[in-house]
TrEMBL record:
Pathway annotation: Protein biosynthesis; polypeptide chain elongation
Gene Ontology MF annotations: translation elongation factor activity
CDD domains tied to this protein: S1_EF-P_repeat_2 (cd05794)
Pfam families in the cross-refs: EFP (PF01132), EFP_N (PF08207), Elong-fact-P_C (PF09285)
Entry keyword set: Cytoplasm, Elongation factor, Protein biosynthesis
Protein name: Elongation factor P
Family: Belongs to the elongation factor P family.
GO biological process entries: peptide biosynthetic process
Elongation factor P C-terminal domain span: 130-185
Gene: efp
InterPro entries noted in UniProt: Elong-fact-P_C (IPR015365), NA-bd_OB-fold (IPR012340), Rib_uL2_dom2 (IPR014722), Transl_elong_fac_P/YeiP (IPR020599), Transl_elong_KOW-like (IPR013185), Transl_elong_P/YeiP_cen (IPR001059), Transl_elong_P/YeiP_CS (IPR013852), Transl_elongation_fac_P (IPR011768)
UniProt GO cellular component terms: cytosol
Organism in which the protein naturally occurs: Neolewinella agarilytica
Length: 187
């Protein structure tokens, strides 16, 4: 059993029959009354973000987790297949546990969060930024670059990303995997 003094970003705990991870927290000590901890946490099963205030000293059930670096191998009817980079064991993970599966390429290394109690995967975290090649996009029209206009483009995994008009087929771009958005042209 943990208390609110153990809360920090990334802390994983059980609450209302679900497993959550702390996204943001703030310890508040008002001038009058008892201290409390204001938290924002994300469900690892649904991805829903909730906010709640806990009184200082409130007991919470901590969930022990481990992070494993794993390499994405392939996808089939059973799900996404990954291999542990240390033990070479393979695991099949369902697509709903992966936040942005359209950005996964064979051979990519990701971080998988495992619940140590039952050795089940909780989430698959992609790197924050990845570089991909544009396989298809409409050509930009000369003179249309005065505004921040974006056009759709298909990357090598088949996912669609909105890019500026000056990006062409064959260009490599940097993509933010959290928002599935264009960041910059790759160098």
């Amino acid at each position: 059993m943990a208390t609110t003094s153990d809360i920090k970003n990334g802390f994983t705990f059980k609450h209302n029959q679900d497993i959550y991870t702390i996204v943001e927290f703030q310890h508040v000590k008002p001038g009058k009354g008892p201290a409390f901890v204001r938290t924002k946490f994300k469900s690892l099963s649904t991805g829903k973000v909730l906010t709640e205030t806990f009184p200082s000293g409130h007991k919470i059930t901590e969930v022990r987790v481990e992070r494993h670096k794993m390499q994405f191998l392939y996808k089939d009817d059973m799900g996404y297949h990954f291999m542990n980079n240390v033990t070479y064991e393979q695991a099949t993970i369902a697509d709903y546990l992966i936040e942005n599966p359209g950005m996964l390429r064979e051979g990519d290394t990701v971080e998988v969060l495992y619940n140590t109690e039952d050795d089940s995967p909780l989430t698959v975290d992609l790197p924050q930024y990845i570089e991909m090649e544009i396989t298809y996009t409409e050509p930009g029209v000369k003179g249309d670059t005065a505004t921040n206009t974006l056009k759709p483009a298909t990357v090598e995994t088949g996912a669609e990303v909105r890019v500026p008009l000056f990006i062409n087929i064959g260009d490599r771009i940097k993509i933010d995997t959290r928002t599935n958005s264009y960041v910059e042209r790759a160098k």
